[in-house]
Design brief:
Keywords: FAD, Flavoprotein, Oxidoreductase. Its EC number is 1.3.99.41. One of its GO terms (molecular function) is acyl-CoA dehydrogenase activity. The protein is α+β, with helices and mostly antiparallel strands. The protein folds into 3 domains: 203 residues, Butyryl-CoA Dehydrogenase, subunit A, domain 2; 147 residues, Butyryl-CoA Dehydrogenase, subunit A, domain 3 (Up-down Bundle); 146 residues. The strands form 3 sheets. The chain has a 5-stranded mixed β-barrel with strand order 4-5-12-7-6. The chain has a two-stranded antiparallel sheet with strand order 1-2. The chain has a two-stranded antiparallel sheet with strand order 8-9. The chain is globular. The chain starts with a helix and ends in a 9-residue tail after the last helix. 46% of the residues are buried. The model has no long low-confidence stretch (mean pLDDT 95).
Length: 560
């Protein structure tokens, strides 16, 4: 259903006609079938019409949907995220009136933060909200880069808009989150008049062309109204509320990264098995030797195993985070100490999932093109689109440098550093338990060395903060985020490989699962031997405190 529309959306894109966005042919039917089949209701609370499944299951379904058509899945994904915010922070009436229809796919949803003059600097937002006598607020302003900002898939679109109420403080503390529908609704949920929300333009992008990225104008005619999420007692609390959606979106972006990476890898794997070129290295001097499938060539096998390890490792990272989320929910009100531990791990892992998932998702797509050779650079095969689509993932929902700064500037020090110590302690326990393992012992010892390197570098970052060398922190944040991500992925791959090796003993050698388990073992060993040692190297680079990018003058960047 979604896969065949991926190339359709890429080629035709979205169109702006008479102020309304027209999505690619087939998208509307796919939207209806997606909701009819119940795929988007898996994780929705039961009281709002869903199955109430755990997030660790929902995230795997989201990967499948995004892997088949990342551009399309942004529409229902954003509707779900916006509905979650209303479900958590809205009044009972708002949950019933807005969230229920959004979860059901009758209405769409967006998040509206970015403005022309204020990208990452959200606190500079100029969109205003003025109270009306009936308790609604008149909204006026412009938002840009709004994914799914308008479309023809649902009957209505509910925008979550950050705006500043008259007289509110400057900066992020003065922002309120408003429910602003494209079309006003009546008390019974039926649609009324339009709400003075207009599409100023559609962005022309490198990829995800089937996703409408809009400039939205609110209140050009003074007729746009909205309501504070949670009512007027929640004025000036927009950023904490929006962080709920932003965190969910950041996890989703990491999942998009691994989803598209998985599709690129699986296509490259299939091509490598079928494409014949060159003879085996064993017969390289024999001009008459038969051509072999390129999967028999050593470098192609290296690329394929690297892609497999990254894809499966980042998937495990996303599931690990969602498992922690499930445990927060399960223990809330029952065992607050456990709930606090799991929430701390969620906070630590969000920037890793988003940054590493999106960065390496793009790298896997690039590697997939290389596996195809020249054919991969053409539109005859899907991997060139995957690569274009994947590039945005490291940019939106906060560039990956923002994720790295969030990690080192906020997350490492949360709870007085207890969350980080718990994370490092979990890995230390794993190392102690398996460092003498007959198959994985050497790899586990490398994991232990990497864990110590991450712990030492975290202390170095703290020292830079305390000693006034603050410029070194943003200079090094991305590298540390990558170190911590690689440490976590190696841990999860090895953990899974130990289980896989035991399970492999229970199945016959000719059973498909036997090869599946063998793949888990080899992927973990490859990552531990070829990627994980880089963590120690990166730690040494940070310890060297190279300040060249800070020392070079602006003029010296010139090449002539």
């Amino acid at each position: 259903m979604l896969g065949p529309l991926n190339v359709v959306g890429d080629i035709t894109g979205c169109k702006l006609e008479n102020g309304n966005v027209i999505t690619p042919k087939g998208f509307k039917d796919a939207w209806n079938k997606l909701y009819e089949a119940g795929w988007k209701a898996i994780g929705v609370p039961q009281e709002l019409g869903g199955a109430g499944a755990p997030r660790s299951l929902q995230v795997l379904i989201e990967e499948i949907l995004s892997g088949s058509n990342a551009a399309f899945n942004m529409y229902p994904g954003l509707a779900y995220g916006a509905a979650e915010v209303i479900e958590q922070f809205g009044t009972s009436d708002q949950k019933k009136h807005w969230a229920e229809k959004m979860f059901a796919g009758k209405w769409g949803g967006t998040m509206c933060l970015t403005e022309p003059h204020a990208g990452t600097d959200v606190g500079s937002a100029k969109t205003t909200a003025s109270r009306n006598p009936d308790g609604s607020y008149s909204i006026k302003g412009t938002k840009i880069f709004i994914s799914g900002g308008d479309h023809d898939l649902a009957d209505n679109i509910i925008h979550l808009v950050l705006a500043r109420v008259d007289g509110a403080p400057a900066g992020t503390k003065g922002l309120t989150l408003f429910i602003v529908p494209k079309i006003r609704t009546n008390a019974d949920g039926s649609l009324g008049q339009t709400n003075d929300v207009s599409v100023g333009a559609l962005e022309h992008k490198m990829g995800i062309n089937g996703s409408a990225t809009c400039v939205l104008n609110f209140g050009d005619n003074g007729q746009c109204i909205g309501w504070p999420v949670g009512g007027e007692e929640k004025l000036n609390q927009g950023m904490p509320q929006m962080f709920k959606l932003m965190n969910a979106a950041r996890i989703s972006v990491g999942v998009q990264g691994v989803a598209v990476a998985s599709s690129a890898y699986l296509n490259a794997l299939e091509y490598a098995k079928e494409r014949k070129q060159g003879s085996s290295i064993a017969h390289w001097k024999d001009a008459s030797a038969p051509r072999v499938a390129i999967i028999e060539h050593a470098d192609v096998r290296r690329m394929l195993l690297h892609m497999k390890a990254l894809t499966e490792g980042i998937r495990a990272l996303a599931v690990k985070l969602c498992h922690h989320q499930d445990q927060v929910h399960a223990n809330h009100g029952k065992d607050e100490q456990k709930a606090s531990y799991h929430q701390g791990q969620v906070d630590l892992l969000v920037p890793l999932v988003k940054a590493y998932g999106s960065d390496q998702g793009f790298r896997v797509c690039e590697m997939a093109i290389q596996t195809y050779g020249g054919a991969g650079y053409t539109r005859d095969y899907p991997v060139e689109q995957y690569c274009r689509d994947a590039k945005i993932f490291s940019i939106y929902e906060g560039t990956n440098h923002i994720q790295a700064m969030d990690l080192v500037g906020r997350k490492l020090g949360q709870a007085g550093g207890a969350n980080l110590q718990a994370y490092l302690g979990d890995i230390a326990k794993f190392v102690a338990a398996h460092s003498n393992h007959p198959t994985f012992g050497a790899a586990v010892k490398k994991l232990g060395a990497a864990q110590e390197a991450v712990a030492g570098t975290a202390m170095r970052l703290l020292m830079w903060f305390q000693s006034g060398q603050t410029a070194m922190v943003p200079l090094s944040a991305n590298r540390f985020c990558e170190m911590m991500s690689e440490l976590t992925v190696a841990w999860l791959l090895l953990d899974g490989a130990i289980v896989a090796e035991e399970q492999q003993k229970k199945v016959a050698a000719n059973h498909p699962d036997h090869a599946f388990y063998a793949g888990k073992v080899q992927a973990a060993l490859f990552f531990a031997r070829n990627v994980l040692p880089g963590v120690e190297h990166k730690a040494q680079l940070l310890a060297d405190e190279d300040k060249t990018p800070l020392d070079i003058s602006d003029a010296a960047f010139a090449t002539v």
